[in-house]
């Protein structure tokens, strides 16, 4: 008789427990379900410019250069067209070129295979000037160079086309990279040289470590404090240096699987925390702090890598045959969006959170947002 009340009391206590547990579950569900879901990443098309139509319109206009003081000028080189466009979609100027061209934020230069007395045009529409020396002109950032015949020497020029200084070596140049303060040059014989913006030789070295010495790729960080290179054949290596004049030294190296006997794509990210370089499977991302490498699986050869201000996103353009692939990477080297298209030629540049994609005779702006 005494057992029954005790059993009843235990059942009653459990009812209160389960009632309380059910109430808590409902309360938590209500709280979490009321929180907004994470917004989706979207690539929103803003405008597309037909470059052929734009060229014809500018050619027939009274003024070939549209000046807008309130917008930044964005240079582009797409197909056989070069020019500059404003973020709003208005083309500042556009030209056709027949053989080759070089373009930077300061200059645009169409030139021929046997370039002599090349005419250089300032990007802001200023007066053009001539480079007297024979060779291939190369405009990059604020610099203006000419690679002289033979491929083993180059010269730096001022904004009037006057030769400031030159550098030569017996072996042909195989890699070239610049920052605001320095120029990094790699040579086929395996030599790496770092010059100041004034032409002083700051550093010269042969990384070695392989059976055959050759520089396949080299890149300089934007603050000139780090440089990286892909070098050697028969045990090809990735090497990373800290730059300190004559005390410049290797702080990390590793051997690479799947050697390539062609120029290698290399680039630092915006905050210089990683070095990216192409590998057989896609893109390798080397973290400078942890000294670890992540593999980003991408299709085709890497053609361009651009940084966006949006969530530290990186845009990568790659190509295989006539198929092009645009991939967006997050800060953890994960692919967060991608698409492919077919074209004879393509190009990519960025401004703030916008992508500008060139395809054959068109240029499109797409904005990266979360909605």
Written description of the protein model:
The chain is mainly beta and 371 residues long. The protein is 11% helix and 50% strand. The protein has two helices and 31 strands. The protein has a four-stranded antiparallel β-sheet. A hairpin with a 6-residue loop joins strand 6 and strand 7. The radius of gyration is 28 Å and the shape is globular. The mean pLDDT is 88.
Question: How are the secondary structure elements laid out?
Answer:
Layout: H1 3-33, E1 41-50, H2 51-60, E2 74-78, E3 81-85, E4 91-96, E5 100-103, E6 107-111, E7 118-122, E8 129-131, E9 136-140, E10 143-147, E11 153-157, E12 163-168, E13 173-178, E14 182-187, E15 192-196, E16 201-205, E17 212-220, E18 226-233, E19 237-242, E20 249-255, E21 266-268, E22 274-279, E23 282-287, E24 292-297, E25 301-307, E26 314-320, E27 323-329, E28 335-342, E29 346-351, E30 354-359, E31 362-370
Antiparallel strand pairs: 1-31, 2-3, 3-4, 5-6, 6-7, 7-8, 9-10, 10-11, 11-12, 13-14, 14-15, 15-16, 17-18, 18-19, 19-20, 21-22, 22-23, 23-24, 25-26, 26-27, 27-28, 29-30, 30-31
Summarize the structure in short.
By secondary structure, the chain is mainly β.
Question: Cα-atom Rg, whole angstroms?
Answer: 28 Å
Number of helices: 2
pLDDT under 50 segments (min length 5)? none
Calculate the terminal CA-CA distance, rounded to whole Å.
Answer: 67 Å
Global structural class: mainly beta
Shape: globular
The major sheet is characterized as: 4 strands, antiparallel
Number of extended strands? 31
Adjacency order of strands in the biggest sheet: 1-31-30-29
- How large is the share of residues in beta strands? over 45%
- The level of helicity is 10-25%
Tell me, rounded to a whole number, the average pLDDT.
88
